[in-house]
Amino acid sequence: MESVPDDVLVRILAGLPAEELVLVCRLVCNQWKNIVDGADLWQMKCHQEGFDEMETGNWKTVYFLKKRKKNLIKNPCGEEGFEFWDEIQNEGDGWNIEELPGDCGMEFPTEGVQKYYASSFEWCSKSQLIDLLQEGYCEELMDVEQPHIMINDWYAARSDAGCLYELCVQLLSDTRDVMTEYKSEIITIPQDTDGGWNQLSHTFSGYGPGVRFIRFQHGGQDAVYWKGWFGVRVTNSSKIFVFSERLFSSFDTFQVHSKNPKIFRFGSENVSDLTFSDPKIFGNSAASENTNREIL
């Protein structure tokens, strides 16, 4: 394979998943290792994903961190019922899942959202607890970089019934103590509105080291006390991290979430070193010698 020109091999390897490139392909031979460690392959993968909006000297770092820009709220639109939602408060007739646009409602402003949660005539709420380490955001990333945490929630009232709505998001320590929180006022939508969707957003920044969990909670009820599901409607909740451009040139280590926990190190001299923290990858004999090993 060493007879294959580098530019051809870059185009071939760019079609493979990133973890296969780092875990498998760079072990094949020196040529493959140099390509996986180099910039051209990762610049091409960034271009394929649309991540090439800024110039950088470390396309590999950009690729992996940009891929982590995902919604940490699971099942935000009720497609899986109440799966992943905890501390569900079902007062009145409780929460109900309905199809958009619903009675006396409007279509969602963006495509892809088909359902929403509807509350009742007494207070209904639900929450999710996000474990950041489990999601792949390592302690060093959270403590040193402190990426912005963007929260978005969508809510609406029926056009024939007003509603109340509230959002509370807390950043928690490893012992689940509240480090900082955002809590909206109780928002009131009067009766006889158009039933359109409203977006509430908040961004956490400069929150200090030690954040390990995020608790997201929202809820509401109707304003007319009618039996059934005439209360606030919520859907498409989201929680994402936004990394600063400074991170792509200065940050050195972050964890990649997969079946086995891993840490990719992107230092100036060991750009492609990979540390495994799961001894099962190497077998018992290797694990007994050292539970952390590096592929150099």
Automatic annotation (TrEMBL):
It comes from Leptobrachium leishanense (Leishan spiny toad). SMART domains: FBA (SM01198). InterPro entries: F-box-assoc_dom, F-box-like_dom_sf, F-box_dom, F-box_only, Galactose-bd-like_sf. PROSITE patterns: FBA (PS51114), FBOX (PS50181). GO terms for biological process: ERAD pathway; glycoprotein catabolic process; SCF-dependent proteasomal ubiquitin-dependent protein catabolic process. Keywords: Ubl conjugation pathway. Signal peptide: none annotated. This is F-box protein 2. Residues 62-243 form the FBA domain. The keyword RNA-binding does not apply. Residues 1-45 form the F-box domain. One of its GO terms (cellular component) is SCF ubiquitin ligase complex. GO terms for molecular function: ubiquitin protein ligase activity.
